[in-house]
Amino acid sequence: MKVLILGGDGMLGHQLFKYFQERHDVRCTLHQDITKYTQYGLYDEINSYTGIDVMSFERVKEVVCDFMPEILVNCIGIIKQQSTAKESIPCIEINALLPHQLALLCKQVGARLIHFSTDCIFSGKKGNYLESDPSDAGDLYGKTKFLGEVNDDICLTLRTSIIGPELSRKKSLLEWFLAQEGTIKGFRKAIYSGFTSLEMSRIIELMFVHPKAYGVYQVSSEPINKY
Fold this sequence. Notes:
Layout: E1 2-6, H1 11-20, E2 25-29, E3 48-49, H2 57-67, E4 71-74, H3 88-109, E5 112-118, H4 140-147, E6 155-160, E7 162-163, H5 173-179, E8 190-192, E9 195-196, H6 197-208, E10 215-218, E11 224-226
Parallel strand pairs: 1-2, 1-4, 2-3, 4-5, 5-6, 6-10, 7-9
Antiparallel strand pairs: 8-11
Helix pairs in contact: 1-6, 2-3, 3-4
């Protein structure tokens, strides 16, 4: 299957790219020049489109129309840990507007879109949220991610939480843990029901063979608690 991953150098994107390489005809987009990624041994000038800034959607269109994927996986988003997470314009353009632009583009080229939302669209105050519950996030990140959810018959939007290794940015929880020395403090009375990026890769591949899997779903694992 022809798969295009937008954001192939991110935490989830690079794991999807690695996982799909031996199974599918996969390409990815990278934000920087190919020379910035040689140390990882993952990317080359054939399997990747480099220097892609999604703020220039015309360039994204060119990539999609060149490769003509059957599946387009959007792994691009501004996360809470980034400094731009408090800036309205990039958050609105990338988290809220881009997914809908991609959905329209997928309709035009006959592709399916898989897009990732987040459990952060909910504040956690109510608990036991359903897919049909309205977002009650109070921050810009949660609000823009909710606006970016695509509920369409050519798109599968997954609300989930992911942990995993990163290539370069080192902004995630796992990388923070690995960078610490000695004893670190954690949370009590906490429950986590997310996935590793590798397990999410397996889940996404299962969705490839289910064309009727569309709409918005909350995807979680068996909860791990700390009491």
